[in-house]
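Need tokens for this chain, all 605 residues.
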Amino acid sequence: MKDIRGIFIPLILLISNSECASFFDLLSSYGPEDSYDIPRKTLPSKNDYDFIVVGAGPGGATVTNRLSENKNWNILLLEAGQPEGIINQIPLSTIAFPAGDYDWGYRLQTDGKSCLGMVDERCTWPRGKSLGGTTTINTMVYTRGNKLDFDKWADMGNYGWDFKNVLPYFKKSEKFRIPGIFDPAYHGYNGNVDVEYPQWRTPFATAFLEAGQTLGYNITDVNGADQIGFSYIQLTSDQGARCSASKAYLRINRSNLDIVTGARVLRILINSRNQAYGVEYEKNGIKYKAYASKEVVLSAGTIDSAKLLMLSGIGPRDHLNQMGIPVIKDAKVGYNLQEHIGFWGLSFVVDLPVTIILKRISDSSILLDYIFHRKGPISSPAGAEAIAFMKTKYSEDSRPDVELFLLAAGLNADNGRVFRKGYGITDKVYDAIYKPIEGRDTITILPVGHNPKSRGRILLKSKDPYDKPIINGNFFNNTMDIEVLLEGIKYAIELVNTEPFKKYGVQINSLKVPGCEKFEFGCDDYWRCAIRQIPLMENHECGTIKMGPKNDPNAVVDPELRVYGIDYLRVVDASVMPVIPVGHITADVYMIGEKGADMIKYTWQ
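Here are the structure tokens for all 605 residues:
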């Protein structure tokens, strides 16, 4: 934090405002003017660049930094959002960002099979809209995935993407700050992204690890040699403050780099020879064009990169014809959408008064502890404390297929004012299972399914670039994904029934989720029903611009991230992942950004 005087007032308002309604105004009031120093241009300083990067998330920010290291290249970075501000740096503020000014506000289509307890039966899908992308609003969790994930990518024909070849890029991006016995072969210590343990921890984090040992699991480094086991959470955190992609990679002042915010790219410019040569974008209601002599690098994220390709004539022929968009390249853009789905409804009331309750955190000593030392619960992203990766009976290989994620908080932490609204949970659901435990200390264990079998799809609503896309999650189309989650619920309940948790009087919240009243609480059919009501979006969406070899009919980009059939156009973000890794994918996108930048450098040097 560069100025404690600048953060004191907004922090007090964040925690103590009785309505919490003005928080989103605070995000604007303490936004770009109070951001850490990132040089920006109102408009590009020139019309012609060597490279144009679209989107400033962990892929785009990384590529921008690395390409601009070459002083002979001119780089333009266009970002639709604004810089993050002081409030974004406070990890606890994570609970209030969904549906705010830093979020695109995307929602899934109703499918009658999932999100039944959400407003309009549509899950929200928070996506960051700022320098830093979703790393400015997420829970900051840093887990890369399993070694086998990347070996499988290579086995699919994606040369150079096996674990041995991607590990150096994970290490290059990482500044590992966790003391203890960690294998340096798996970690980097001089990179851009700060990785550390939370600066605050409740006794439940330790109980979580001890309970795992009671059940026969090891305490492990989830980013090390063996992923299966229990661990304190690793965060993209800089001594208690958020370390976003923009903070990690864009705090640079280079004469060959122009960063323009509030610039919404509308389409990619492609000539008659199928060569990308620039972009059309809008800022303050005026349309402009910018030109790239070498490449356009698309890093707008899984949703918007797919949308931009389709708006530019690269996508499924039938769909583009339906939208009235001339087809330049028939490609399976928007298919293969994947996500890790969890379950909100596993909360536990506890006797120990140490969890996150916003009214309690307004105490001046807690505020001052964070302002001056970056310690205490305000340094925690929504109470994230510990994590476990486990194998269920359905696992098909050596990888874990379920995750347990411990929060020292519940959706009742702010009495329903902001947290649950951002995720779209209805009043009916909240009032039934969370309102009765308002003011009580609560922990939440989030079971999350991995290796999902269901696949979704993104389509255009129209050829108007300002229309939000149609997002079909298709969650639970394959019911095996529900069965894996059900096993995760059983593991979590078994965990809290061990002695390390029992000594804290942990009791499951047995109030029934609306829509599932006909089932006996705790039976398998009750949990199957409840999962469909209130699934948790992990915000790990990927796969809509699939990477694959030329003989893969579903591949959109090649293993060097070049769009098939279009010269001088690459995609560098989570959309290129052919299969979702067993982890929280921000770390993977940093890796893709580092590797993608080296591929571009190799091409042009």
